[in-house]
Structure formats: C-alpha cells, structure tokens
Amino acid sequence: xxxxxMKLLVDHGAYGNLGDTAMIEGVVLRLKSILPEAEIxxxxxxxxxxxxxxxxxxxxxxxxxxxxxxxxxxxxxxxxPFFRRYRNCWRxxxxxxxxxxxxxxxxxxSLSIANYxxxxxxxxxxxxxxxxxxxxxxxxxxxxxxxxxxxLFKKSCLLLTFAEQDKPIVLTGQQIGPxxxxxxxxxxxxxLRKSNFVGLREPIDSLSFCQKAHIDAKQFEVMGDxxxxxxxxxxxxxxxxxxxxxxxxxxxxxxxxxxxxxALEQKRHLQQIAVILDKIxxxxxxxxxxxxxxxxxxxxxxxxxxxxxxLVRSAQILVMENNNLTPGLVKGILxxxxxxxxVSYHFCTFALSQGVPAVCIHDGxxxxxxxxxxxxxxxxxxxALPLNETSTNQAVNHIVQLFEDGVFREKLxxxxxxxxxxxxxxxxxxxxxxxx
Length: 436
Prior knowledge:
The protein is an alpha/beta fold. The chain has helices at residues 18-34, 87-101, 126-130, 149-164, 182-192, 205-212, 235-244, 270-284, 301-309, 327-335, 345-352, 365-378, 392-403, 406-435, and strands spanning 7-11, 39-43, 58-61, 112-113, 124-125, 135-138, 141-144, 169-176, 197-200, 220-222, 253-256, 288-290, 317-319, 339-342, 358-362, 384-386. The longest helix is centred in the last third of the chain and has 30 residues, at 406-435.
C-alpha cells in the first residue's frame, strides 16, 4: 500500500439525516487529514446531501440501493404460486438464515450484488466488488441492530468479505443493538470478531455487547460519536440564521421530536410533551424552536414538530423548516441554546458536545439504549427522561433542575473538550495503525 494510492471504501447508514451526515463529514475530514494521498470512495444515496463531494480525493461510490446484496436463500421459492404475497416476510427470514450461514457453509464474497451496473442488467459477486478497494471504514451510527435488518445484513456481508480478502477493517462511533433476534445477535458477534477495530460511542450496552461477544479487548474501545469530528458552522452564519427566527444566543430552548416506524411509542406522548413544552417555555420565559435532524418523509422531524406545535397552547414555539440546514449549522444552533430537550440522539449529542445541557426523552427499546448511552458517556443519569414512567410535573421539574444546575454546566463544558480530544486520539491511532 505504501507504493500506491490506497483505495478506501467508506460505508455508512446516512439517508437524509443530519446527524448521520455529520458523522460522515467528521470521519471523511479526519481521514483526509491523516491520509491526504488516499482515494476515499464514500457510498452515495439520493438523500445524502453533504459537502464531502467537493473534497479532493473523495469519490461517490455507486448508490447503495443499486448494489443491494442478494440473500443466498431469497429466490428459493420464487416460482411457487402466491409466493409474492409472502415475499417481504421471507426476505427477513432469508436474511437471518444467510447471516447465520456465512462462514459456516459458504463465504460472504460468494453472494451476488444485484443490478451493480447502471448501463446493463447484470450482477457480480460481492468479492469482485470488494477487490477494488484496499480497506474498509464503517462510519458510526445505530445500524448494527435488527431494528434496521437491511442495514445490518449489508454491513455484515461487506465486513465479512473484506475479512475473507484479509484487508483491514475499522468501525468507529458505533452503537450496537438492541436486538430482538438471538440468531442475529450471535451472527453479529461472529462478524465483529473479524474486524481490526470497533470504536464504540457509548460505554453501556455497546461495550457490554463487545465484552460478551468475546472480541479481543484490544479490538474495541469507547471513543464517542463520530460527529465529534465535525466543527459547527461559522459563527456569523449561525447567528444570521437565529436572527431570521428572532432568536438570540443563550435565550431560547431547542426541542426535537420524532415519530417513525422505529419510534412509534413517541406518538402516544405528544399531548404530554406539548404540556411540558408549555410549562418550561413559560417558566424560562424563552421561545422554543423545534430543530430537525431527520428529514426523510418517513421519519421527518419537521412533520412531527408541526404536529406537536399545534398542541402547544401558551409558549412561543417555532419550527425551523429551512432547506439550507446543514449538519454544521444545526450543530451550531444547538450550541447557542440555553438548553435542549429531544428524542434524537444527535440532537442531544450536538448540544452536549458544546457544553449545553440536554435531556433525552424516550420510550421504547431503541431509544432507551440511546438514552442510556448518553447518560453513560456524559456521566450523568439526569440526561434521560422516560416518558412512560414520568408525570408531566415530574418531567418539568426534572428539566428545570438540570438546566439551572450551574455546577453541571461547568463540568459538562470540561467534559465536552475532553470527549472530543478522546475521539481524535483514538480515531487517529486506529487509522494510522491499519490504513497507513
């Protein structure tokens, strides 16, 4: 590799989500700093809007949906009458069977990639695709879970194929789990043991997973979120945007809510959340701005925010609906808030990493793990608020007490600086160890 330009494949799970995009930008920026001569191929998608395409040496790898890995067992019943109506169910089952079988009965590289070519209807083996690259970097996020089975399947197959070709594999900023399927959980244990390094973004459930998976202790470490690698936008841009909404630094509260197939539990709490917003808005005498992170039609924080805003009776509430929002801008906005309350992991992380108190409201297993992770990483159990276990008045008191805790703000400010330094140190060390 020393005598030629390294070709590095960067995979991720970003689809119209500013938090996921922040992680990609943070990772690619750092990779370019450490490996200035490398050619970095980043998986592209229609909903991925990012500045990285303007960086020299960064290339678009064909759109993710164009090379969905075919499950080995997917087409067994293709000719059976009435199979079409059960196709989606069988797709999930076949993914489980295939993941369990990989490395036992056939290599991951033997799987086919569907419609790889844009110009002709052909497929190639996954091994042929991976042969183009020298190494694999998987950007952080919450995709290593059976909540997102397609993402888990594709990333596992990709990782195993690189391992079969004896090429370096680094994952950073990962949340692992939760899992409902024990088969998929065990399959991921086996997959991750093939990687060179697994960087974790939280020290609770993800760390426990790696320990119980019998991964070598030198192969995993808590490093924090990959968005730590991205700085906020320029102050002037941030303040100009705040001015457009009539907001002033440190004189507004930010909020985020999400209703999606993986977060349906939040919908039944909307009325309770609206009352909480009314009360904290009046208490602090500050406007509340709903700041979106997810922008896809299926999990849009803007759509959920507008639905919530209709229920708020007294507090001044705004929805930041702006086509020009970027990860850096949103991160900067949250860094100017007095305090933030929300569902989104990155909404809270953007604030906390800049010393701004955040309360993660949650219900359901998927966001429970995210909330636990935030508390564990930032070392304060008050950062999580379970909506299904808390009355409205308890929630208001909880938020007010945290926001008014001056000692906590000072500690958080120091912790934010240390956390970013930790991320850079671990990231640089692992990339230099395996990709240089």
